[in-house]
Design goal:
Structural class: alpha+beta
Mean pLDDT: 74
Strand order of the largest sheet: 1-15-16-20-19-18-2
Low-confidence stretches: 1-12, 33-58, 82-107, 121-147, 155-162, 178-242, 248-264, 274-287
Family: Belongs to the peptidase S11 family.
Shape: elongated
Protein name: Peptidase S11 D-alanyl-D-alanine carboxypeptidase A N-terminal domain-containing protein
Number of helices: 21
Keywords: Cell shape, Cell wall biogenesis/degradation, Hydrolase, Peptidoglycan synthesis, Signal
GO molecular function: serine-type D-Ala-D-Ala carboxypeptidase activity
Helix content: 25-40%
Radius of gyration: 68 Å
Oligomer: single chain
Pfam family, one: Peptidase_S11
Length: 733
């Protein structure tokens, strides 16, 4: 086990104490040499290495105590009573203790004499004093005397006023009869000693003191007035002694630590100290370690817990309603500020929502009037529609019928899909093979529609399309099929796949030219194909040509003689014995200053005679013309919004709205009984920016539905600003 901090401090001054004690002993020896009567000194301390010794900080050696009046009176009274014990005590005084480790008080022999005398004087108190008288007949063990000295020292240090022991009371009772005149003086001196005792005990409070140090402390508190000592019987008066030399430093094992060598039992920890009482108050002595007249201070806390409890008691104040309210306000205010900061940071860092377009104009318009009546053919089947607005009507059974050369519309659509052209481009070159030449030779003999070509001749894609769609050459249809897919059969598979993709469920394709009667469809399916094909500008340009210069064939007119008349802009004719007269047509009508396209199909129109204009081709053209004109007349328009009118706004998602306006007039075309949808959408699937300048086109107003619906661009009426911090902070979503 390691040494305690107090023991380490005391060890540091061990050598200095030993030196002081040696100096003091030398002074005493010098006094004896001059013949001065010497009191009995304790034996020199023997150093000891006992681990249980208690080391104290260096302190000056007290002078030889001077007997007070009471002691002298008691001595005189007892000496007269029991002189026979003096020689024995004197001999014991000269020989000293048997063991050097036990320091014996100078008055021990005399005390034993006094005890013996008092015992004879006051026999009635013998039972009470017997425990102390037991030590009179034999020397005490050093260990027992050391333990008794330590206990007496602890009692003297802890007591506020040391009480008189039994022996002292007996001595006082015995002497009262002998010297009554000294009673008052002795009591006065005893009271003085009792009052001065705590101050002396405080000097030794750092460790337990032995019996010798306690006796020295009592003697040091006596006034230093020279008194004439009363000589005992048989003794000469002591000569004046020289001034005492400075005390020698104590050795490693001094008077204080030597008794601890006997390893006495460890005393129990002291109990809680009583509160200090100022000197002179209520007749009580001051607390240990407090000088007379001073006010005692509360003990310092021994542990951290005690210190915290002291701080808590010092800082505790009564909680009034005002303080409670202020504390709550401060607490809730702090929490509110923290909450606002956290929410503000989160709201600022959260991504802002994407802006959206909202429409303020009407989302649809319904045309007034009854059901639509068109000039339908009496035979066959027909269908008319306005791309983007809807179907105007149909007639006939709608069953699949042979298409004849109308089939070439699918052939051209597939080629342009696989080899698209830009308007004005001629496209890649196509080498005429021998099969195209053979088909020309065979077809010309059987009355087919063919174009003269030469093997190895180079035709552009655009030229081949013209020869296919305008004069309806069968040999060029097969040539394009082989050029695109490698064989006629492979190309037919592509044709059928395209029909399925367009939703043409009633169509079957078996050859590229339509010469075979097995290629069949109805008016509804052909209306779908015509609408998709007319969306291609190159296709639309080719079928809208009235005539062209064909290589090796010269100027070649379009078989669709309606092109260029009554607003007709295409598409393709087809006639055969099996199919009769067929025509797919397209016309364009201006409604409210806006051109609106109309697409129609007329199938299975028979001839009405053998004369001019009575054939199947003449009949289909005539019947189709009447249908075109009636459809154009049925169209009417309505102004939904003019240029600059607000048609909606941009919503930034945080409450900000920026109006958008139409960049041109919004005209709705339709017919009686039709309801047209109007919607607002971003441009081409693009997102709306978070900030933009005024006039920026951010969307379009869609009139109608489908891919062919009419669109009107819309732009910002004012600048579009990104959401600010306030908008971000107050957003809820």
């Amino acid at each position: 086990m390691g040494e305690s901090p107090d023991r380490s401090i005391r060890t540091a001054g061990a050598e200095e104490q030993e030196a002081e004690r040696s100096t003091a002993k030398q002074a005493v020896d010098d006094t004896e040499a001059t013949g001065t009567t010497k009191k009995s000194e304790p034996a020199a301390p023997t150093p000891t290495d006992s681990p249980t010794r208690t080391l104290r900080a260096p302190e000056p050696e007290p002078e030889e105590p001077v007997a007070d009046d009471e002691t002298r009176v008691l001595r005189a009274a007892v000496i007269e009573k029991a002189p026979e014990t003096e020689p024995e005590d004197a001999a014991a005084e000269e020989t000293g203790p048997e063991e050097p480790e036990e320091p014996e008080s100078a008055d021990d022999s005399e005390t034993r004499l006094l005890r013996a005398a008092v015992i004879e004087k006051t026999p009635e108190t013998e039972p009470e004093a017997a425990p102390e008288g037991e030590d009179e007949g034999e020397p005490a063990e050093p260990e027992a005397e050391a333990a008794e000295a330590d206990a007496n020292a602890d009692d003297a240090a802890d007591a506020e006023e040391p009480p008189a022991d039994d022996e002292t009371r007996l001595l006082r009772a015995a002497v009262i009869e002998k010297a009554p005149e000294t009673e008052t003086e002795a009591e006065t001196d005893a009271d003085s000693d009792a009052l001065d005792e705590p101050a002396v005990a405080e000097a030794d409070a750092d460790a337990d003191s032995d019996a010798d140090s306690d006796a020295d402390s009592d003697a040091a508190d006596e006034p230093e007035e020279p008194e004439e000592p009363e000589a005992d019987d048989g003794e000469e008066p002591p000569a004046p002694s020289a001034p005492p030399a400075p005390p020698a430093p104590r050795g490693i094992a001094d008077d204080e630590t030597r008794p601890m060598s006997a390893l006495p039992p460890i005393p129990p920890p002291p109990g809680p100290r009583a509160p200090a009482v100022p000197s002179g108050v209520g007749g009580e002595a001051p607390a240990r370690g407090v000088p007379a007249g001073a006010t005692a201070v509360a003990d310092s806390p021994e542990t951290t817990v005690e210190a915290m409890e002291v701080l808590a008691r010092l800082s505790a104040r009564p909680m009034t309603p005002t303080r409670i309210a202020l504390r709550r306000a401060r607490l809730y205010g702090t929490l509110l500020v923290l909450l606002v900061l956290i929410l503000g940071t989160v709201q600022e860092l959260r991504p802002v929502p994407s802006p959206t377009l909202a429409q303020t104009t009407a989302s649809s318009y319904a045309f007034n009037g009854g059901s639509l009546a068109l000039d339908w053919p009496t035979k066959g089947q027909a269908a008319v529609s306005v791309p983007g607005l809807g179907l105007m009507g149909t007639s006939g059974s709608g069953n699949p019928v042979p298409l004849a050369s109308v089939t070439k519309m699918m052939t051209a659509y597939v080629v342009l899909h696989d080899h698209p052209l830009k308007k004005g481009d001629q496209g890649p070159s196509i080498t005429v093979d021998q099969g195209a030449v053979n088909d020309y030779n065979t077809g010309s003999k059987s009355g087919e529609s063919v174009q003269k070509v030469t093997a190895g001749e180079q035709l552009t894609e655009y030229q081949a399309l013209q020869m296919l769609m305008i004069p309806s050459a069968n040999n060029i249809a097969r040539l394009l099929g082989r050029w695109d897919a490698g064989t006629d059969a492979a190309f037919v598979q592509k044709m059928q796949a395209t029909a399925a993709r367009l939703g043409m469920t009633q169509s079957t394709y078996t050859d590229p030219s339509g010469l075979d009667a097995t290629t069949r469809s109805n008016s509804g399916d052909q209306l779908k194909l015509a609408t998709a094909a007319m969306a291609d500008p190159v296709f639309r340009e080719v079928v809208g040509t009235q005539s062209f210069n064909s290589p090796q064939n010269g100027l070649t007119p379009n078989t669709n003689t309606l092109v260029g008349h009554d607003g007709v802009i295409g598409i393709k004719t087809g006639t055969s014995t099996a199919a009769l007269g067929n025509l797919v047509w397209a016309a364009q009508q201006s409604v409210g200053g806006v051109d609106q396209m109309i697409v129609g199909v007329t199938l299975s129109q028979p001839a009405i005679g053998g004369g001019p204009g009575q054939g199947i081709l003449d009949q289909v053209l005539a019947n189709s013309k009447k249908l075109v004109i009636s459809a154009e007349q049925a169209l009417q328009g309505h102004m939904m919004a003019r240029k600059g009118d607000v048609v909606g706004y941009v919503d930034d998602g945080l409450g900000g709205r920026t109006p958008v306006v139409a960049t041109q007039d919004v005209q709705v075309a339709g017919w009686s009984g039709l309801t047209v949808d109007v919607s607002l959408r971003p441009l081409g699937g693009q997102g709306i920016p978070h900030s933009a300048a005024a006039g920026t086109v951010v969307g379009e107003l869609v009139v109608g539905s489908g891919a062919t619906a009419r669109t009107v661009p819309v732009a910002l009426q004012s600048g579009l600003a990104a959401p600010g911090f306030g908008s971000k902070l107050t957003r809820l979503g």
